[in-house]
């Protein structure tokens, strides 16, 4: 009986040791992979083009290291729009603000339906989009060091309204003038549009 208890105790201690090593290994890998934080900067309101994938700020708490960025965009229905992979660059310890010219050449892939529109207009069609950017280890691109996303980025491509009354550059003498203007084109739900009217005394 004493021998049986001894073997059970040995097995229990062995398993505890293995579990301890696994936990330490997983924790160490998590710490290493979380050394790079990424902040994806929001595109201007109602606008988005492919370069919006690369306006990021990187925070590296470890040693300088070579990385690449992988960005991907989906529309509001989850359909693939485009993705891209930058060239390799090195981030120093601390904060690095990245801009697209620093990352060239950049390899892009896009859905054919969106590709024609982007090439013609320089932006994606009106709608809602999700964009995500990943920081990858340049030596092993399967190793993700950081990730950030912007969900439901609204893009609204419209022509601006034109003033109807009073006419442009006329002198207004009315105490309570009534302003009217043409609607934006194409028409969109009223809840998605707001106007800012600025009146200045001259």
Q: Which properties best describe this structure?
A:
single chain; 202 residues; alpha+beta; 6-stranded antiparallel sheet; 11 strands; 35% strand
Describe how the helices and strands are arranged.
Elements: H1 2-33, E1 36-40, E2 56-60, E3 65-75, E4 80-85, E5 89-91, E6 94-98, E7 107-110, H2 112-121, E8 127-137, E9 140-155, E10 163-165, E11 180-181
Antiparallel strand pairs: 1-2, 2-6, 3-4, 3-5, 3-8, 4-7, 8-9, 10-11
Roughly what fraction of the amino acids lie in strands? 35-45%
Major sheet attributes: 6 strands, antiparallel
Helix proportion range = 10-25%
Average pLDDT taken over every residue: 77
| SSE topology string | HEEEEEEEHEEEE
Number of helices: 2
Indicate the radius of gyration in whole angstroms.
27 Å
- List low-confidence stretches: 19-33
- The structural class is alpha+beta
CA(first)-CA(last) distance: 103 Å
Number of DSSP strand runs = 11
Q: Which term fits the overall shape? A: elongated
């Amino acid at each position: 009986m004493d021998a049986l208890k001894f073997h059970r105790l040995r097995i229990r201690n062995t398993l505890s040791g293995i579990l301890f090593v696994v936990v330490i290994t997983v924790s160490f890998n998590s710490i290493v992979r979380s050394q790079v934080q990424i902040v994806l900067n929001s595109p201007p309101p109602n606008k988005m083009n492919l370069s919006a994938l690369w306006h990021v700020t990187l925070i590296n708490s470890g040693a300088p290291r070579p990385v690449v960025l992988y960005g991907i965009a989906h529309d509001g229905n989850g359909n693939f729009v485009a993705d891209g992979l930058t060239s390799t660059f090195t981030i120093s310890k601390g904060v690095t603000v990245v801009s697209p010219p620093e990352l060239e050449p950049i390899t892009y892939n896009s859905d054919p339906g969106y590709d024609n529109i982007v090439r013609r207009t320089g932006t994606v069609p009106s709608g809602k989009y999700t964009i995500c950017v990943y920081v990858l280890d340049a030596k092993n691109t399967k190793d993700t060091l950081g990730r950030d996303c912007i969900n439901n980025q609204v893009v609204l491509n419209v022509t601006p309204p034109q003033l109807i009354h009073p006419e442009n550059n006329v002198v207004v003498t009315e105490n309570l003038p009534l302003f009217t203007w043409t609607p934006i084109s194409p028409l969109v739900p009223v809840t998605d549009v707001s106007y800012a009217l600025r009146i200045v005394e001259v």
